[in-house]
Amino acid sequence: MSANAIEALLMALAAEPNDAAKAYRTVHGRLMRFFSLKGVADPGALADEVMDRLAASLAVRGIAQIESPAAFALGIARHLLQEEWRRVAREKETVREWAATMQSKPDDEKELTSRSLDFCLQRMPAAKHEL
């Protein structure tokens, strides 16, 4: 998050810095509860992402264009939740496909495939291992 985006976010939440900090924590906490109730794995990370996107929107659009930052954040959260559900569905499908592929192979091919995958993962940058 850029300094301009943070400044825009805090100014949109409240005029006084202390009040803005409290409002930030309140909105962030509500977002975490929203994501927790929806059963996501990491509500804190998604709440952080919403706040980042809200800050970016405020910096680009201007504070006056968004009447209620908290309500706007909830809209962002709903869209982000849909993105998260799609991501989880893709992961589950990939796991199912992998399991089906591995199940249909003879044991010697399974071992070769597993070693090949390990070799490829070792050559990848660490940031891409999770993918």
Task: Give an overview in words.
There is one protein chain. This protein is 79% helix and 0% strand. It is mainly α. The chain is elongated, with a radius of gyration of 21 Å. The two termini are 24 Å apart.
Features:
single chain, 131 residues, mainly alpha, 5 helices, 79% helix, 0% strand
Q: Nearest-angstrom radius of gyration?
A: 21 Å
Given helix and strand content, the structural type is mainly alpha
Number of strands: 0
Task: Extract low-pLDDT stretches.
Answer: none
Q: Helix proportion of residues, in percent?
A: over 70%
Give the biggest sheet. none
Order of helices and strands: HHHHH
Q: What spatial form do the alpha-carbon principal axes imply?
A: elongated
Number of helices: 5
Q: What is the topology?
A:
Elements lengths: L2 H11 L3 H21 L5 H19 L7 H35 L3 H17 L8
Helix pairs in contact: 1-2, 1-3, 2-3, 2-4, 3-4
Q: Summed up, what is this model?
A:
This protein has 131 residues and is mainly α. The chain has helices at 3-13, 17-37, 43-61, 69-103, 107-123.
